[in-house]
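Inverse folding, one chain.
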């Protein structure tokens, strides 16, 4: 079957967070896609709607079977049924876990630059952030294990949040890296929340490695958050899961999710997940090819037309991390602010209408970067890249960079 990713579909007047912008603006920021979900999922949801009764829902065996079959076939990892717990979203699961496994003023390690809501999950629950900054070298990221061990060894460190694959860089962590993380966390009695929501958006031919699959140590300390929502553009349906091999941790998190009332599905959450994992694979394969093509278009366009920006070559997600350090370094001599990436993002938006995310949203290590979402039709991507080029050209000329 041929799937259409080229048609531009207006999302105005749909209460879209992403598209709550001015008429002349083009949002390429928040991580949702401008594609309809798989037609197979739409058909199943339409059948559910046609039934006409939307009372309280339960979690049936087919939901467990769908997750188990998908992870076995797609990621060569066996999830046991008893490990799985439904939740309304990855972020609710992370927040509930932070509340349950920490006490106020304890410390939670995150590896910056990283998804900005991790900060909120920690701060809002009375804990302190420990930033283990990733090492950026030759256009790639790697973990700083010396610094990581120092932070994990702090007696006040209770928890680590791992982003796998990594958002915003698109890095797929390899088995050896994840094994080292698990070994250190077990050594210092630190539990690991592994956010793996982006795991199904990968460059064709690449494979993500589930953290819990790597070693007995990783399995023992892990709380893994997964969902069909990023891969199939279903975020608004609030359908996710956690799987936890360790029975002690599993009971704790099961209680946390139920106490926080985020463990019950709405009328469409189960249908959407089951449909995605049982019928959505051909669509997802086509989507990954399309996004990979968009990534290459973006990298080539920037290389050829905006030489002051470097693209960080990622292998996962539909987000591209843009290194604008050459621009911010020169701009620092003209502008009195430490938030230079924010200044650049706001300047480009004001001048061209292109809305991307400033890098400092993702921690101090994100300063000097921008994040752009390329999960959109190619005509929209072309428009966005031209706006980015025009905005940077105007910035360079105005400040004589």
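Residues assigned per position:
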């Amino acid at each position: 079957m041929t799937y259409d990713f080229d048609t531009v579909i207006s999302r105005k007047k749909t209460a879209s967070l992403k598209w709550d912008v001015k008429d002349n603006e083009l949002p390429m920021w928040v991580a949702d896609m401008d594609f309809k979900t798989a037609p197979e999922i739409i058909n199943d949801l339409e059948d559910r709607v046609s039934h006409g009764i939307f009372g309280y829902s339960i979690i049936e065996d087919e939901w467990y079977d769908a997750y188990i079959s998908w992870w076995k076939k797609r990621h060569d990892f066996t999830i046991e049924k008893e490990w799985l717990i439904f939740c309304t979203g990855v972020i609710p699961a992370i927040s509930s876990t932070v509340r349950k496994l920490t006490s106020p003023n304890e410390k939670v390690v995150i590896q910056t630059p990283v998804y900005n809501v991790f900060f909120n999950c920690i701060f809002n629950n009375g804990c302190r952030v420990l930033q283990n900054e990733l090492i950026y070298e030759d256009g790639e990221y790697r973990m700083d294990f010396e610094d990581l061990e120092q932070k994990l060894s702090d007696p006040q460190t209770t928890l680590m949040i791992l982003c796998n694959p990594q958002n915003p860089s698109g890095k797929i962590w390899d088995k050896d890296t994840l094994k080292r993380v698990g070994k250190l966390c077990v050594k210092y009695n630190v539990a690991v929340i592994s956010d793996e929501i982006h795991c199904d958006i990968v460059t064709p031919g690449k494979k993500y490695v589930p953290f819990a699959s790597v070693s007995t140590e990783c399995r023992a300390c892990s709380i893994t958050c997964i969902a069909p929502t990023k891969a199939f553009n279903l975020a608004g349906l609030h359908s996710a899961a956690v799987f936890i091999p360790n029975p002690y941790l599993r009971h704790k998190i099961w209680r946390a999710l139920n106490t926080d009332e985020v463990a019950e599905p709405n009328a469409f959450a189960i249908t959407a997940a089951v449909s995605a994992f049982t019928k959505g694979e051909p669509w997802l394969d086509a989507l990954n090819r399309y996004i990979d093509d968009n990534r290459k278009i973006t990298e080539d366009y920037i290389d050829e037309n905006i030489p002051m920006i470097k693209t960080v070559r990622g292998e996962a997600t539909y987000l591209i991390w843009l290194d604008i350090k050459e621009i911010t370094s020169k701009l620092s001599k003209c502008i009195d602010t430490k938030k230079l990436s924010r200044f650049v993002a706001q300047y480009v938006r004001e001048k061209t209408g292109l809305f991307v995310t400033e890098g400092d949203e993702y921690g101090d290590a994100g300063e000097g970067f921008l994040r752009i979402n390329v999960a959109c039709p190619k005509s929209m991507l072309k428009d966005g890249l031209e706006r980015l080029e025009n905005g940077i050209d105007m910035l360079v000329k105005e400040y004589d960079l």
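Residues 281-305 form the longest helix (25 residues). The chain has a mean pLDDT of 97.
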